[in-house]
Predict the 3D structure of the following.
Amino acid sequence: MQNITLAEIASDRQIEYVIIINPSDALRNKIVRIKEDIHLKYNENILLNTRPNIRLVKFFNWEKTEDRLIDHLKLTAMEMPPFKVSLKDYGSFPSHTLFINVISKAPFQMLTSNLRRLRPLIKSPVAEPNFAGDFYIPLAVKLSLPQYEKIWKDYRSRRFTGHFIADSILLLKRDERNKNYQIAGRFEFMNLPVSPKQGELFA
């Protein structure tokens, strides 16, 4: 594989990427209805244009490196077995965010650890990659303190349960010209061994 020259990098576009896990369609629709109910009841700042998902990492990268990144994401996903995701009740980040709790932490921690091995491919002069330290599905974000207190008083005692099988990750992308993310790739979990030669980042 040819090395990318400094001249090529200088003329390249910076792209914002996010790697996520999507819930099943039925569960995603259930969560969308909750978000819409919050919006109707409280008329608050809700992520209505964002489909419910669990974010693993957000980063910026040069667009010309995308093909190489995709190759290694395929290998990373191939190693991962499908796993059950359990959601239970509501949580919050005082004083700005309401979310649904992910209680099955271990497989997400393993997956994020595997993604951290790709750090040499997702370095950027713009910002360091932001790996998730906790795992959840956001419902309402960027709330003011009065908004947060009002919603959290209602939702902290409510109950929610849901389960789905995570069988893939999605790579989303957008640039400065686009508000919405586009799908750059879907990578299935296959529970297959990947040899050191296949997984080598700097062959």
